[in-house]
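Ticket #4471: structure output looks truncated?

Reporter: J.K.
Steps to reproduce: submitted the chain below (325 residues) through the standard prediction queue, then opened the result file.
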Amino acid sequence: MKDFRNIALFVVLVGAVPLFTDSGVMLNFVMTSLYACLLSQAWNVLGGFGGQFSFGHALFFGTGAYVQAIAQMQWGLSPWVALPLAMVFAAGVGAFVGAASFRYGLKGSYFALVTLAFAEVFRILATSVPFTGAGVGLMLPLKESAANMQFGSRAGFIWLMLGLVTLALCITAWLRHSRFGAYLQAVRDNEDAARAIGVNPFSVKLIATILSGGLMGAAGAFYVQVFQYIDPGIAFGAHTSVEALVGAIVGGMGTLWGPLLGAVSLHILADLTRNLFGQLPGINMVIYGVVLIVIVMFLPRGIAGLGTTRPLQWLRGSKSDGDKS
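Returned output as attached by the reporter:
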């Protein structure tokens, strides 16, 4: 119950921000930070709790984004109906990829490469078929109203994204305390031992992939509503996959608040980098790579593990290694 009380407090505090400021910079920061948090939480469900590293989560993001755009432009559906539909389609793709991978025992680096390959296949397909707009992409018409999920200010998007992040946080809290979450973490820590006590690793990992895919699809649908444009490079590009996994790893995998901490920290770092280096192409990926290396070397539990990591533990470890050699 403590986790859910903290989530409720978080919702109240963040939801009140648009009521006390109309600063475009502040509101944009909150909105994009929540968006990055949703990406990281989606990855955390599968990568952090399930131990199944994915390099191609853009596959689910792009599926959700295209379903959101196509449902409105070609099927004439309301965006409020298209949003859950986008999550269902992305979850369905997650079910397909998970079933195809786990049925044949793919895990570790093999699973990571399979997700990356599927994302690339979907990118090529989206570039080739006409209903996705091919290489040109799709652009939603501007019809500003709450009914069209096109709000006149950032406040509407913040509250929408806050609802999606709350859903992701509740799923993560459930994973921390439920029997299914215990099964998932047991499979992550030792799949053979989990199987020996009666856990079905295939079903557990498949459900985690479906949950993770659905949340990622919601992020893709939100992206389309905010920027009103999607193309294959944006939808299935590597940048989204990297942003999702780095945020979770930097913040702390398998934790409730770690992905949020990681997403906000990286967002602040990206703003500082932009101010220092301008729009230098690729600089954000370089910074992400450096931060990832530093975190993996010195903070294996991420920012969320700072309170549990003993001071200079890594130095002692390095010294011990040197003594042994």
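Triage note (M.O.): checked the attachment and the full token line is present. Residues 317-325 have pLDDT under 50 and may be disordered.
Status: closed, working as intended.
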